[in-house]
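so i finally got all the pieces together for this one. its two components total, 307 residues if u count the protein bits. some of the lines might not be protein, just check the labels. i wanna see the whole assembly predicted at once instead of chain by chain like last time, that was a mess tbh
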Amino acid sequence: MPDADQPHTAAALFASIAYLDSLDSATLHSVARTAVKRTYEPDQVVFLEGESSSGLCVVENGWLKAIKTAPDGREQILNFLGPGEVFNAVAVFASDANPATVIALEPSTVWMIQRETMLRLLEDHPPLARAVIQDLANRVTHLIQLVEDLSLRSVEARLARLLLQQAQTDILPRHRWATQSEMAARLGTVPDVINRALRSLAQDGLIKVERHQIQILDKAALEARAGLET
Amino acid sequence: MTQPAPHLPVPLIDHDRCTGCGLCVDVCPHGALALIHQHAVVAHPERCDYAGYCERICPTQAIERPFQIVIVPPKGA
């Protein structure tokens, strides 16, 4: 549903993200007037992989996940999307179908900027084009890292890295309670394998699985197991 | 799973996946779970010791235990 009452909200949101902050105020308000606001409940699908692209999406609030799904239902999380993040750029600029499925994890508000609007802006605003290229380059880097992890690192090493990331950087403040299923989805495996890897790391004294907590006992050794330089 | 729990959580049960088979109720050594309206629920959270038998036995992976991941400072640090 278009939300004609809140163009200022959208303009303020767009101005606050690096992706669009090169645009002047008048342009941002112009984009905001044509943007469409959508709200999603937890587990609601924003769009499905393979569907035709609907536009560039900007998260106002909430958390979502971008996933690829196997025929047997197993999912691989590509990334999590939080407030101020932009997604679906690949489909918009490649004029292609959505490359992944996006699902809301909690009540979320997403603004969608029509593809035609974005293409027109790119032609008129070279700084925006540079920001888009920068963003796409970052996404390629992230996906190269993901391919490296999935193809070249053992589940144990990937799990070690995930534990360190989640404990240290707190990049997912809404997800500090991690389940084995969630870890499996992020690492491209199944909960049983995660369970075995946790036991292996615990037997080696790197971690301890306590009630409600996975405790990292030896950070340096876990970093070495993760293949991270110390 | 998506909400930060102010208190220590109990196993999460996805009622869309739960078939009401009752295996988790039978396997829990402390009687923390019960079947209500053909769905498993943690009826007595105070009894749950987080052992994970329910999570492991569930044939539809409807039960999950959330964990917090923390770094324990070395002793003396």
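The first strand of chain A starts at residue 36 and ends at 40.
Residues 170-175 of chain A have pLDDT under 50 and may be disordered.
anyway lmk what u think
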